[in-house]
Amino acid sequence: MIRKQTTINKILRKLPTGPRWNIIIIWRPGRKKGSMNTEWPAVLLFKTAADKAKLEKKIPSAYRFRWFHAETAHIRFWDTFDRRLEKKKYTLYSSDHIFTLYHTEDSGREWGVSLKKTGDTPLLAGAFPDGNFCRELAAVAGIRAVLPSPEIVKHSSAFSILNEDQKTIARASWMVLSVKEADISATAVVIQPLRGYESETEYLIRRLPPSACHQSVEGMLTSLLPAHEPYISRPRLEFDVNEGMAPALRKILIAHFKVMRQNERGLLGNWDTEFLHDFRVAGRRMRSALSLIKPILHPGAKQEQVLTLKRLGRFTGPVRDLDVYLLARADFEKMIPAEMAGQGFRKFFGRLTADHRRKFLALKAFLESREYQDILNTWDGYLKSWEKHVINDPDLREMAASLLKKHFKKILKDGGRLKPSSPDEQFHDLRIETKKLRYLLEFFSTLYPQDTIQNTVRQLKTFQDNLGAFNDYSVQIEMLRGFLQSAEKKNDQDQVKTLSALIAVSYQGKEVLKKEYHAIYKAFSGERNRLLYQQLFGGGV
Q1: Are residues 389 and 399 in the same domain?
Q2: CA angle, 515 as apex, 512 and 521 as ends, to 5°?
Q3: What is the pLDDT of residues 202-240, one digit of tens each?
Q4: Is residue 315 situated within a structural domain?
Q5: How many CB atoms sit inside 10 A of residue 224's CB?
Q6: Model confidence pLDDT, tens digit, residues 295-334
Q7: Structural domain of residue 427, as residue ranges?
Q8: Smallest Cα–Cα separation from 258: which of 171, 160, 370, 376?
Q9: Are 96 and 74 in the same domain?
Q10: N or C, which terminus of the chain has less Cβ within 10 Å?
Q11: Which residues form the CHAD domain (predicted)?
Q12: Which string of DSSP letters, residue by residue, matches 430-485?
């Protein structure tokens, strides 16, 4: 296990190493212009190209530099596609084959590990050796892969600064940096004074070429990288309330079409399962928007667009279902007695894995086909020629409120009819209605007070979770029955026992959820929630 003395630290091994060698340059009011109160080491990125000779010429002749070793490192910073590490205040970087993960606000939380085969391949937490590093990364990144930044090549030379008495007053590192993928190059210096020579070192720093001050070496390095394109899987849309519903619908479709396109590369590379999930959900939201928000568009052209999204769903749905099962392998294993989680269980998941591979390759071929490109071109043209498809443009607020009330009432009505003896299909239909209401609430959330609208979403999510889990069990049982029939035909008794046990436990779980349904429905349909919807959307509910 590699801890504090990582490869990036080694370029500064002549410096006193404080926790994470963070620095903050503070310009205090009332001090002379140019006067600094510095926390060390100072991390300075020069604003124009510089070299060692120019650097030495900038300081008074009484001082000189003593140069030591030089070395080269290849550095990448890593984060998930949705920036989970950054959001949770973590940084992950690699220097050649050494990976370091640390919490940016807690210097005591740092982990390191060696991984020889990396390059620019996205990595799941499970790709790293088991240990504290792997567990911490898994806790932060979850099931998402970490993706590499462009490579930063860093040539560094350590040196000391000596005064006229030939005493060392500071130790430092000179860095020549380049980001080849972005055609960026820069020079920087990191300086750490010895105790008692802080003021003298500040005096020298003020004579160096103009530079930007950074809080850390990592912060300085990441400032060279291209900016990340913002990614939000569920766009929060701002509308012009003076416009009608037609431009609002267009904005909804454009935002979710963009989410689909943003996930294509990771989906094709099979980097992690969330790329397909977000791609698929974005397409389903587009379908729902077209189907629910009507009559706005000419029905003929609109139906053609709906069909293209359904076509996508035929390829993405089966792969996503298998993703869910494969991710839940440990949960499946816990569902049945240990003696049944042996050969038959392994065979079953081997079949799931093989089936997933076949269906994923079919999806990949489709996404790389001319047909898919035609779908993208059709959507691009449809959104650009929007005005010619619009046949109605009602008031945005009025129509949004009307739609939300309508679907809330339908859920109350349909949900109140369900009994423990009701067919599974009726629970499934209600689940779809709750999903429609959830989409509408999220589409138009910015039209309403955020605290109140978030309360409605939370209430609905609790209801959805029950119906969603019930539906998952129903689909799971059908899938397991299909595999069971195949195992019975092959007289594979190991698999028959395993699958029979999984079906029995799944059925029990489904029945429990059915019994819990009425208490959850009662809370959702209660007076408090009805008043909340009435307060937001008006009218009696």
Answers
A1: no
A2: 125
A3: 999 998 888 888 988 999 999 999 988 899 999 999 999
A4: yes
A5: 18
A6: 999 999 999 999 999 999 999 999 999 999 999 999 999 9
A7: 395-540
A8: 376
A9: yes
A10: N
A11: 242-541
A12: HHHHHHHHHHHHHHTGGGS-HHHHHHHHHHHHHHHHHHHHHHHHHHHHHHHHHHHH
